[in-house]
Specification:
Helix content is 57%, strand content 5%. Strand 2 and strand 3 form a beta hairpin.
Length: 446
């Protein structure tokens, strides 16, 4: 119900009724799957029906049901004026004048200073991409693909050349992964439409995946990084236990799908790289078919049409080409697992704490030292902190804002972690070992 003597019944979205005013207590009641409200810039929106049509997926917007989504909305939408036309019909009211602008345990001073920093870097043009950078990146991917094929076509398929071909293909696939990541985050073109179009080509034709699947999965990670039950990257479906909270919970409940005290010795190195291609392809097919996304399916199939037309005779027989593709994907995923976990897995993994954007992202994220190799190898995701704070910023500008982000963190005593590549890798192993030990102790003694 409303407060302040105004409307007492919630206005229907787009009904044209006078806007009501609400308290946070009222907003927080609407966070179920069939009843979702959220707040953006003190305006209250009923997103219950819209969530199903949300381009980023229903779950990512649902993660902010009953909460203030202002910072996440700003981070994910480069053209906010365009998005307003979708928000306007969903408006049902606003927060009462006596209510704070932000919910939960959010630090207002941090929020204001981060808004100021964002405004500064926008004014300096750090959200504008350099077309030549991305053209050269695409060019070196296509060059690797072409050289790999020409090498085995011209010189034959000896073990040495086959291995070298696999390395080149795995490298091009990994680099295509970082490039599709750029377009998926709308960080290349000014118009979202062009980002979406090229994203489908890169992830579909060059990688054999689906843009819609990636969007719905990856944006959830960015919205609530390292938050159990919300971030898919820490949802291991019972194969692993991560952090310091989940292992104890599993141990107390006597959950033992696997011997969780040994993941650092075996499973992380071979189980995930073997399972991920299978799981991802099943998810991709399910998303494309269930959502009837035939455009993504066409791009997905074009990858295999291109691959088999190049490598099935006269280069290899059919099953030989299949084996090469599986081998390439195994090594590509191995690199993907390590790179994507360097910045997150050793960090804090916990349940929802409703913190401000800066604090939430910094607690779940760390950086790897800058070097030409680290930048190239990780697709500039060695600047994971800056990427998570400004997901639509072109990656070639991360280093330009890093010092100011660090200064803001120092001002509020928020740890800004920077590691060497080697230390980040060893931290993964030690983190898995710690999680396994915590699970075993809780399983045996609690």
């Amino acid at each position: 119900m409303g407060v302040g003597g105004q409307q007492t019944e919630a206005a229907e979205p787009g009904s044209g009724q006078a806007a009501a005013v609400y308290t946070w207590e009222e907003v927080e009641k609407h966070r179920s799957r069939n009843d979702r409200w959220l707040v953006i810039n003190r305006k209250v929106y009923n997103i219950t029906q819209w969530a199903k049509r949300h381009p980023g997926g229903s779950q990512v917007i649902g993660h902010y049901a009953g909460e203030d989504a202002t910072e996440a909305f700003t981070a994910f939408h480069p053209d906010q004026k365009f998005v307003q036309k979708f928000l306007k019909p969903l408006l049902i009211g606003e927060l009462a004048a006596t209510e704070a602008s932000h919910d939960g345990n959010k630090n207002v001073a941090i929020i204001q200073d981060f808004e100021t920093l964002r405004a500064q870097v926008e004014k300096e043009g750090l959200f504008r991409a350099k077309p030549l950078f991305f053209c050269l990146h695409l060019g070196h991917i296509l060059l690797l693909e072409a050289l790999a094929w020409l090498m085995v076509w011209y010189w034959g398929t000896s073990w040495t050349l086959t291995l070298l071909c696999a390395v080149m293909l795995a490298t091009s696939q990994a680099q295509a992964g970082w490039l599709q990541h750029d377009f998926g985050h709308l960080s290349v073109f000014k118009k979202s439409r062009w980002n979406h179009l090229v994203h489908k080509f890169v992830i579909g034709h060059l990688k054999g995946a689906a843009a819609s699947w990636w969007n719905h999965l990856h944006y959830k990670h960015h919205a609530k990084p390292n938050v159990l039950s919300k971030d898919p990257d820490v949802n291991m479906s019972g194969i692993f236990v991560l952090g310091t909270v989940q292992p104890v919970e599993y141990g107390i409940k006597k959950i033992k799908h696997l011997p969780y005290n040994h993941p650092h010795r075996t499973s992380f190195y071979w189980v995930r790289p073997l399972l991920i291609p299978v799981i991802f392809n099943l998810q991709i097919m399910n998303v494309m078919i269930s959502r009837r996304n035939w455009v993504d399916l066409a791009w997905y199939l074009s990858f295999y049409a291109r691959y088999f037309s190049c490598y099935v005779p006269p280069v290899w027989p059919f099953f030989g080409s299949v084996a090469l593709n599986l081998f390439v994907r195994f090594w590509r995923v191995t690199g993907f697992v390590w790179v994507t976990q360097l910045n997150h897995l050793p960090m804090n993994i916990d349940h929802e704490k409703h913190r401000d954007w800066l604090t939430m992202q910094l607690q779940a994220t760390c950086n790897i030292e800058q070097s030409f190799f680290n930048d190239w190898f990780s697709g500039h995701l060695n600047f994971q902190i800056e990427h998570h704070l400004f997901p639509t910023m072109p990656r070639h500008n991360y280093h330009l804002v890093a010092s100011r982000v660090r200064a803001l963190c120092d001002k509020y005593g928020i740890p800004y972690q920077m590691k060497t590549l080697w230390r980040a890798m060893t931290d993964i192993v030690s983190s898995l070992r710690t999680s396994g030990d915590l699970w075993l102790d809780a399983y045996l003694h609690k």
